[in-house]
Amino acid sequence: MTRSARRVLGILLSATLLAGADVACDRALAPDALIRVDQVGYAPGETKIAYLLSPRDASEVRVTVLNAYGKPVLNVQAGTNRGPWNAGFPDVRPIDLSGLKQQGVYRVRVEGSVRAESPPFLVEPAAELFGPAARDALSYFQNHRDGADQVPSQWQRKPAHLADRAATVYERPSFDAAGRLTADLSPVDGPVDVEGGWYDAGDFLKFTHTTAYALSAMLLARRDGLISDGLAAETAHGLTWLDKMWDADKQVLYTQVGIGSGSTDGGFLGDHDTWRLPETDDQLDVRPGDKRYFQRYRPVFRAAGPGEPISPNLAGRVAAAFALAAQVEAREQPDRARAHLDAAAGVFDLARTENVGELVTAEPRSFYPEDRWTDDLAFGATELALAGRALGDPRTREWTATASEWARRNAGRGGNDALSVYDVSALADAEAIRLLGGGRELLPDMRRRLDAGMRTAAGNPMGAAAGNGGYDYAARQLGYAATAELYEHVSGDERYAAFATAQRGVVLGVNGWGTSMVVGAGTTYPRCPHDQIATLTRTAESGLSMTGAVVNGPNRADRVHELQATSGPATCRNDRFAAFDRDDVHFADDSRISANTEPSIDFSATGLLAFALMARQH
């Protein structure tokens, strides 16, 4: 029997035997409290904190851990009340399960003034738990490929958007506050071949900004040997598209394929105006002026005119992705590696570093409102120097000096954010330490970011560094976990190990709703993602819901209410989480609610890197 089969059998056995034990114990008393655990599991040596959510005082409860056969193996005490979760659960207490060292399947039972029982969870080596989670994140990318190059899967993806092979380039458009165009698109160049790549999120847009971030995370995992199966093919797919988005001859970086919303006058429809499978766009019989013309013949936009300075955030992260590709290819594909190194240098050299103004990310910018850029330049320069070192390039000394300067400037900026698509300082710091050694200025920068997260977590009822919800919530939690793992790797300092485990746990079930925010991970996870491919290929028999996708998670209540009121009937909806909502933050497993259940490549790339880093724990 394979190890995965043994795991499934163990969970089923645990669920069956413990359910029977529950009936035998006391048929009259049903659980009235809740226990939240990391539903993927814990490594044997990790600090393991679960949480009890109780409707009343739980100071006198008895806590027992049972193995797969219902046998008690550990007795612990519930901790001090950390304050209310919501009106229904005013008493929240940590339960320290760190005494569980033996591999196996377990549940936690609480008895006394309240009763509760946790879902089953595993204690296994980190590689067994989080290696599969990282590979599942990779499958999300495989199933969100655009273009002709598709891989066989249960989603039965078909080639799509082949008209991108001869696309027209337009001037950067202007938008109103709602993100709709206020003027006609104005063509400036073309045709250009921008076929391929990945869909950015639940829609079919493609962005250089988020693709470069996702590629960088994947290439770091590939370079350092954190994931093997499938990663080479997927990074090659992404790089093929990114290569097309940089025209070295014209000195132009293209930023986007497709347009999200249509025009204010209703003259044409954008990508977000029609719910469909991507291959249907290729079947549209449209001409210029038709409403759906830009869904088949998708516009391309550029960061700046030919040879003009490029927004530094884009220049830095695109250069980093190309330079990481060069490092991965240096030994076995040196000619291709040198081509990617030259592409990285060409993009980086065009970075605007004075009078920067508003950063370019997406059209409209409100999709990704980034306001930092020194981190991207530090990241890009560092990867250029590392690639130059690997290839023996004579420009390496210059790039190393540039990397040192930008790393110092970025660390001096004083930011407090962990890794995300908006701030790659954690990657820039860790990679600069790899390049320069020491880390006298850079390790304090990483610690400052982690310490800020620890302060927030200390005051949060569930120990969450990103609070109780908000935009990019799950990705921010995973960003803290990844930052802590990167810090430990470059410093040898384990002070943030328990913090990393806790932040991962929030994403995998240790939250007020008791749901994993990674599709397919754990026992409870979103079944109704706001994702066109997942929704339109799902049937009652298949239950397909895009395994490996990291969704946003809980978000602002007002935004959730707005989408519920304006989005029409749900094609897939699960109301089981409403009792756990707070006044300020809600979570609905509902295909209409993009603010909760939409996955994206930047969320999933952060998850891929965080899980891959955690899988290498001893």
UniProtKB/TrEMBL annotation:
Gene3D superfamilies: 1.50.10.10, Immunoglobulins. The keyword tRNA processing does not apply. The keyword Glycoprotein does not apply. Coiled coil: none annotated. InterPro entries: 6-hairpin_glycosidase_sf, 6hp_glycosidase-like_sf, Cellulase_Ig-like, Glyco_hydro_9, Ig-like_fold, Ig_E-set. Pfam families: CelD_N (PF02927), Glyco_hydro_9 (PF00759). Residues 33-113 form the Cellulase Ig-like domain. One of its GO terms (molecular function) is hydrolase activity. Keywords: Carbohydrate metabolism, Glycosidase, Hydrolase, Polysaccharide degradation, Signal. Residues 131-606 form the Glycoside hydrolase family domain. Belongs to the glycosyl hydrolase 9 (cellulase E) family. This is Glycoside hydrolase family 9 protein. It comes from Paractinoplanes ovalisporus. The lineage of its organism: Bacteria, Bacillati, Actinomycetota, Actinomycetes, Micromonosporales.
